[in-house]
Amino acid sequence: MKKTLFYLPVLFIAVALLSFTFSTHHKNQAADKPAANTPALNFIVMGDWGRNGEDHQKEVARQMGKTAKEMGVSFVVSTGDNFYPSGVVSEFDPLWRYSFEDIYTDFSLQFDWYPILGNHDYKSDPDAQVAYSKISRRWKMPARYYSKTFNIPGSNGQKVLIAFIDTNPLIKEFYSNTEYGPNVASQDTLQQKRWLEEVLSTPDPDIQWKLVVGHHPMFSGGMRKEGYDTKAIRSTLKPLLDKHEADAYISGHEHDLQHILPEGKTHHFISGSASEIRKTGKLPESKFAASEYGFMVFSVTKDAILVQVINDEGKVLYKTKLEKR
Fold first, then answer.
1. Residues 152-210: tens digit of each pLDDT
2. What confidence tier does 229 reach under pLDDT thresholds 50, 70, 90?
3. How far is CA 242 from the centre of its chain?
4. What number is the average pLDDT over the span 278-302?
5. 54, 211, 223, 270: least surrounded by Cβ within 10 Å?
């Protein structure tokens, strides 16, 4: 009887500790889930992905499907390098099936995809990805560069403008490259810059946010921190984005996830780890950097943009909010 009385307090403490441990773990799991931001325009940003399902492409795709369903995602933005190793040769290339259609199969991902071209997409026929828009229900690439406005739910007719640009012809070293050269030479660089200036300067009082999506980053703490391509895009585009006060520049190319806020108004986001990842680092202006498989979710309201970085297991690695100044 004495032994029983002695063990009862010990048993009670053990049960209490076990209960506390389970409860704490459960709360942390709930905290790791993406925050639903409604009413909002929710969209996924992912990049550097087409590998026939290999190197975590399938795992990231499955988590994209789960997140898209939970958050009511309206569309997907791809930051380029859609097909490794060398793009597609035509709109009938088998890679459309092996790297796209058979990978992103969740019903929540059967909505519009707005892609841009990466450097690997230039190794074959970049216009084949434009042509696929006439075949696919969800692939929406009307040209090598284009823009679109989206209505913001819950607002009084306000919109977000997204300019989808082609950064490949803006890098002079590509013109002497035997793989990229023929296709970048067919692009009129000055015409694209004039077009972007016109898009960003359009006086529309309903446009609340201006976002620009390009494959190559302007700033990075990763492998291409001071690469020739990073420098070229920064010197070419940053003055234009600063002039028109773009709210964010979104890119890929670096196989990681980053948020950088250099001097000025424009936030810089890198989402290029929807498949392969590489080591990354930080700049003095870096807010976040991670070498993890994943993607980002942008939730746009008339007053703020919530950006959440999500890995292939559904964990929220980082979140930040852009607010109108």
1. 998 989 999 999 999 999 999 999 998 888 899 988 899 999 999 999 998 889 999 99
2. very high
3. 21
4. 97
5. 54
Are residues 23 and 114 both part of a single domain? no
What span, in angstroms and rounded, lies between the C-alpha atoms of 112 and 110? 7
pLDDT number for residue 225: 87
- Residues 228 and 95 both lie in one domain: yes
Give the residue numbers spanning the domain of 100: 37-323
Same domain, 69 and 17: no
Question: Is it the case that residue 101 has pLDDT exceeding 90?
Answer: yes
**24 plus 93 within the same structural domain:** no
28 has a pLDDT exceeding 80: no
Residue 8, pLDDT above cutoff 60: no
- Domains contained in the chain, number: 2
**Do 104 and 227 lie in a common domain?**
yes
**201 CB burial (10 A radius; 0-12, 13-18, 19+):** exposed
Q: Strand 159-164 to strand 257-260: parallel, antiparallel, or no bridges (unpaired)?
A: unpaired
**Is the CB of residue 249 less than 8 Å from the CB of residue 266?**
yes
Give me the CATH number covering residue 190.
3.60.21.10
Whole-angstrom distance, CA of residue 249 vs CA of residue 264: 12
Q: 198: exposed, middle or buried (C-beta count within 10 Å: 0-12, 13-18, 19+)?
A: exposed
CA 40, CA 262: separation in Å to the nearest integer? 27
The answer on 162 and 25 residing in a single domain is no
Task: Name the CA radius of gyration of the chain, rounded.
Answer: 22
Who's near 249: CB < 8 A, 6+ residues apart? Answer: 211, 212, 213, 214, 217, 218, 237, 241, 266, 267, 268, 269
For 299-309, b where at least 16 C-beta lie within 10 A, e where not — what string?
A: bbbbeebbbbb
pTM of the model: 0.88
